Amino acid sequence: xxxxxxxxxxKTIPIAVDHEGLDVKALQxxxxxxxxxxxxxxxxxxxVLSAARRTALLNWAASNxxxxxxxxxxxxxxxxxxxxxxxxxxxxxxxxxxYLSTFTKSLMPSMRIAYMVLPPRxxxxxxxxxxxxxxxxxxxxxxxxxxxxxxxxxxxxxxRMRKIYRRKMHTLTNLLKSYxxxxxxxxxxxxxxxxxxxxxxxxxxxxxxxxxxxxxxVRGLDTYKVTPDQSPPSFLIGFGGxxxxxxxxxxPKLFDVWNIxxxxxxx
Length: 267
Fold this sequence. Notes:
The chain has 267 residues and is α+β, with helices and mostly antiparallel strands. It has two domains: 2-150, Type I PLP-dependent aspartate aminotransferase-like (Major domain) (Aspartate Aminotransferase, domain 2), CATH 3.40.640.10; 161-257, Alpha-Beta Complex (Aspartate Aminotransferase, domain 1). It is 36% helix and 15% strand. Strands 3-4-5-6 form a four-stranded mixed sheet, covered by helices on one side. A four-stranded antiparallel sheet has the order 7-8-10-9, covered by helices on one side. The longest helix has 25 residues, at 153-177. It comes from Neobacillus cucumis. This is GntR family transcriptional regulator. Residues 21-252 form the Aminotransferase class I/classII large domain.
């Protein structure tokens, strides 16, 4: 996303994220006029934007008619705990939220269909700016998807997938808990990955190297950081394409490489 903005000659300003999501006070102190957020399951931390932060963010956007929020509703379909959280776009009273989503995870990546919901006051600007552009998605694919949704099949499909991914998330987190205080994790309320924190004196680079030497590729959080910090080594652990048995085999194998021992028996 940052590259898209940069390539279109837009200045980007990193804003910190904590356990409640985007630090809105830091946003207010910046000179940003557009906030790009993934409030349902922030990537890569997995944080869900709290209700209080959502209200504060909407108030920030409402404070200036030139302020906008781009809401990328990443992973919103797959929430496993608590009540469904309304989108910022649904909460917005001032036409300040541009809503983006896709069917990449909910259906399949090869479909290549995404959509955008614009505030009414931006529609004329959009039509004028994008007259030369046309959708590259075949019309037949669009009609099939529209029929799939109109018939209620999409909702039923999501319910089935949510149950499958909830079981996978439970398998993963239950297994991780058996390693006790050696590790911790976050971002397990939604989505198809968790953020794994390793409590060790070793660095993230050292752990990545050890895993690679055993034929295991892991992605560290440092890859996504704008400013390095002193937080423990953290890794994105995705499970979307894995079976529950894959998960049960993969985690012990990785932790054996890192010499991390279980402290309890998984439930």
